[in-house]
Amino acid sequence: MASVDLTHFLVVGAGAAGLMTARELARAGKRVTIIEARDRCGGRIFPLPSEEFGYKAEGGAEFVHGAAPVTRAVMREARLSLSPRQGTRWSARTGALSPDEPSLPDADRFYQALTEVKADLPVAEFLETHFAGRRYDELRRSVTRTVEGYDAADPHRFSTMALRDEWISRDDGEHGRIAQGYGALIDYLASECRLQGAAIHFGAAVTSVDMVRGRIAARCRDGAVFEADAAILAVPLPLLSDIALPSATRERVAATADIGFGNVVKILLRFETKWWADSGGRNLGDLSFLMSNARVPTWWTQHPDEYPVLTGWFAGPKADRVSALTEAELIDMGLASLAEIFDLPPDRISTNLAASRAINWGNDPFARGAYSYATPRTRDALSVLRAPSGDAIFLSGEALYAGPDMGTVEAALASGQETAQTILRGSPATSPRA
Length: 434
Ligand SMILES: Cc1cc2nc3c(=O)[nH]c(=O)nc-3n(C[C@H](O)[C@H](O)[C@H](O)COP(=O)(O)OP(=O)(O)OC[C@H]3O[C@@H](n4cnc5c(N)ncnc54)[C@H](O)[C@@H]3O)c2cc1C
Description:
With 434 residues, this protein is an alpha/beta fold. It has helices spanning 16-27, 50-53, 69-77, 107-115, 123-130, 137-149, 160-168, 182-195, 237-240, 247-253, 317-320, 327-342, 346-350, 378-386, 409-425; strands at residues 8-12, 31-35, 82-84, 88-91, 176-178, 199-201, 206-212, 215-220, 225-228, 230-233, 259-262, 264-271, 278-279, 282-283, 287-291, 298-300, 309-315, 353-360, 371-374, 393-395. Among the domains are: 3-45 and 180-258 and 375-425, FAD/NAD(P)-binding domain; 105-168, no CATH class. The longest helix has 17 residues, at 409-425. The strands form six sheets. The chain has a six-stranded mixed β-sheet with strand order 4-15-16-17-12-18. It has a five-stranded parallel β-sheet with strand order 6-2-1-10-20, with helices on one face. The chain has a three-stranded antiparallel β-sheet with strand order 7-8-9, with no helix packed on it. It binds flavin-adenine dinucleotide. Flavin-adenine dinucleotide is lined by residues 12-18, 35-38, 43-45, 60-63, 65, 205-206, 234-236, 239, 243, 264, 266, 361, 366-367, 370-371, 397-398, 407-412. Flavin-adenine dinucleotide (FAD) binds at residues 12-18, 35-38, 43-45, 60-63, 65, 205-206, 234-236, 239, 243, 264, 266, 361, 366-367, 370-371, 397-398, 407-412.
């Protein structure tokens, strides 16, 4: 039976990808059951209650990066607006706070070498091959910092060709936030799913997906069993290997080892006042981003909104190394970094603190990290993972997206849409054999 003839689908995971797949299938008249381990939709989109920060602060995804066509199409449908990023970026990298970010040293040579790469290799190896000398210490540090901090990636695994695509073929679309928050986009998709008749079951952590008498059966940790004609697994990459799967799917899932998955610790601090706006005679009233060499190196404000909130970002292999720290210890680490950056006594900052949260996504049992990144073997892995399987088990999610926005909400939504289109077009996937 072609996938187009299957009628009832289980969607495992109610993140952006799962909800998008479910919405498209339900719209096309399919019966859809969504199974979600948490007690909420959204997954790595995680709005915090307004009472904590004065607005729905984002514990997970926050920005819309560039053109993001699928995200913007859903935003238009849901009547959500984009609040463009504004303000001044400051840097404390050279010691003193300055509105000028130091530029990449030897940038021309670096970009030239990047464009000449013919066979992909990890970024660390690329740097060692072309920029080994002491003269390039700062260049290597700068590239490594961005790979770790922005891509949340391990430079010893991150693909040089992916770095090239990201840095040279930059997407010049406007960056910003959804004014109503990413949660509003999830609420819209979930309500669309329900409107089209899809059922959502919370607190249902799937531990195995089998084929029983020509049907798919998903078993949950609490003993519940859901049956359907086919299943879409829209869980984060590390969780895929935890679910017991039929042997053909398991073999396919082994390819996920060639896709990187990085970690992020996000620290949100709400203060009584925007104390940083007037810092040592400098006017930082329109501060947007602040880059530094402190332990928590990257910070941003909600500018142009006036909320007195600073968000700290700590990513890549370094974030993996703080897995044993408690939330309180992570918050202290954030406060100490701010004291260092602004050259203030730590208690001056902490007495102003009104609310705080630190989320280590690597410790989240249903995410186990933040987002995926490409290694030199990811392209091959994706062709295995995205190929029609013939076993009525489909894979979806940000890491499964082969386009340019890997690791983003756009990737998740596009992957969800693509999965539904593949099914509705009638991929060679067949009804499972008993
Ligand atoms: C801190 C952080 C900041 C980010 N910032 C940005 C940003 O600014 N812009 C951007 O575009 N992207 C950002 N991202 C990435 C973005 O959030 C993700 O790429 C996207 O949300 C992933 O969606 P998804 O549906 O693929 O996966 P998820 O959102 O992870 O959804 C998967 C769902 O599966 C559920 N699940 C897991 N295991 C099971 C199981 N066994 N049984 C049932 N359900 C299960 C999970 O609970 C989850 O709800 C950020 C991510 C993080 C963590």
